[in-house]
Amino acid sequence: MPAFHLFFLGDDAVAVQPNDRALRHPLAKALRDSGEWIDTVPGKEVVAVHFDPLALRPTEAMGKLEDWLSSFRAGAFEPGRPIDLHLDCSADHAPDLQTLADQNGLTPHTLLERVTGSELVVDMLGFTPGFAYVEGLDPTLKAERLAVPRQKVMAGAVGLVSGQLGFYGLTGPGGWPIIGRLTETLFDPERAAPFLLEEGQVVRLHLVDV
């Protein structure tokens, strides 16, 4: 049976840490589907559950959540449909590709083959709107964050650090080495569904011919 550790995140949210990290996505979905909370946001280890502090005192929210969790049973989690994304790795969009390839003893083409051949899954969204942390990257690929972050990274840029990719939803500063840029728009506040990706979603990357 799942076990959970709960603690407050300020006066309007409770963090729920499951004993099994894999429960984060089905737990967040079930909480969201219940319609009883303002928002639920899965993180690396916990799910943040936001409530209305004008309607519930923090201790009341904690008790309500504990009651809800006592009957939670993790069923088969069905993430959103797999999504195909297209990666432009031309020189203008991949300033760190050659450096990362050299560091890994690979050609840029081989490094990209290992990236696109990985079983990629959106782990969580955060940092900035639309920014996606993507797990499942080939574990043989090694990279560290830049010693000096860039002041401007374009929306759609794809960064790589050991163990994961980062998809930039907005243009802004960033410290991930960049290996390409997606042709799709990850975040558009004018769309009916502003976020293109969701937690737990399988991502299939395809290289754009240039």
TrEMBL record:
The keyword Nucleotide-binding applies. Keywords: ATP-binding, Hydrolase, Nucleotide-binding. InterPro entries: CT_C_D, Cyclophilin-like_dom_sf, PxpB. Residues 4-197 form the Carboxyltransferase domain. It holds the Pfam family CT_C_D. Gene3D superfamilies: Cyclophilin-like. One of its GO terms (molecular function) is ATP binding. PANTHER family: 5-OXOPROLINASE SUBUNIT B. This is Allophanate hydrolase subunit 1.
